[in-house]
Write a structure and sequence with these properties.
This protein has a single domain (about 5-55, about 105-395), classed as Rossmann fold, CATH 3.40.50.1820. The protein has 16 helices and 11 strands. The protein has helices spanning about 5-15, 25-40, 45, 80, 125-140, 165-190, 200-215, 230-235, 245-255, 255-260, 270-285, 295, 305-320, 355, 370-375, 375-395, and strands spanning about 55-65, 65-75, 90-100, 100-105, 110-115, 140-145, 195-200, 220-225, 335-340, 360-365, 410. The strands form 3 sheets. Strands 1-2-3-6-5-7-8 form a 7-stranded mixed beta sheet, with helices on both faces. A two-stranded antiparallel ribbon has the order 4-11. The chain has a two-stranded parallel ribbon with strand order 9-10. Helix 2 (about 25-40) runs parallel beside helix 6 (about 165-190), helix 2 (about 25-40) packs parallel to helix 10 (about 255-260) and helix 11 packs across helix 13 (about 305-320). It is globular.
Amino acid sequence: MTTTSRFDAVYRTALLSKYFIKGWGKPDNLKRLFQFKKKMTARETCNQLVPHDYPVTIDKIEDHSNYRILEGHLVSPLVQYLPECVPKESHKAWFQVLLPKKWVTDPLRPLCIHLAGTGDHYFWRRRTLTCRPLLKENGVASIILENPFYGLRKPKDQVRSNLHCVSDIFVMGGCLVLESMALLHWCEREGFGPLGITGISMGGHMASLAGANWYKPIGIIPCLSWTTASCVFTQGVMSGAIPWELLQSQYFSDHVFREEIEQLIHTPEQNAAFKAGQKFARDFSNSMENYDVSLALQSSPDVRPAEALNFMRGIMDECTHLENFARPVDPSLAVCVAATRDAYVLREGLKPLPEIWPGCEVRYVDFGHVAAFLFSQHVFRKAMVDSLEKTSLKYYGQSLFDRREGTPTEASTTLLHAEETNKRVTKSEV
């Protein structure tokens, strides 16, 4: 067993932030989300949720010395299906596109969608650490999508990245999968390809879910994530930021959690402890029905009530475990980067990714989670480039990086030459 990073634990403790301070979320919303998730587990039904011509709007174009930034938005497709679950601030999905002025990869136009990790608000971090270097060094364009509940899409009463309810993480995932599909359709209409999708930490897992549901071969590059989010919230250092006594009290005070939602759960990591927790919870009396929620919020982070813990593991596996979703059209295009001493994403005891996605590649960096983010950005970018190159060689019949003689092709898309109102140009240097 590899020792996990002590720095990860110290860093998490120093943040002093609590997640899910309002509990599980409304039981009816959880039931709606679980029922809707059934449509997202099969690629065919999931792709029917987002039309190929789904509207995407470009609001602004900024002209820089060697590249352009497009700013745009779309209405999250999930709003059409679960309007009561998506906060109004998150209805619009905002994004930026970084395009080269000259395509050195001509005739190919490689592009990667970048999803946000925990705490990654707005666009600047991904633009600075990942997208601009990708563009400068490899000629790869990028789309940076703002997460629901973050930045421009953050509910007014939410503090920083601290989601109020467990159900919010499932809403976020549903939004990002469908929004990514809408943007991938837009990329195809605009002539981009090969295409990839990536993210770090939570963004990596969201990228895995979105990429697996795409109906064509696509490069998937999850960094510092694994096969399920359950390990993050029940075993990793993040579990210390969760009010377990509050979740326990809500679990016992509403029979819907025990009698209805549990019946919707399927976890590929099913084990004796999980089953024992389910049975104990069903047989437990309702004596905690009037449990004091204010006292629960003051509980020690070291407390891990078995029933709440097992229910959390179950619903996280149900909604995030990769084995509960479609396998990518071509798993061999996926390149995953994991940290050997990650204390946030604990892989021990879980099904390995290559077992679920046969043929995928897993690379390791010898760091904890936080240190890997700080010192392995070049490794992540290399994985992105390699995944796109695999896609190009296998499905486009040529290398992205066999530079051709002559002048690179000037970048253009149909939307770049669209409405005059979209052409508010601001010049600046790289």
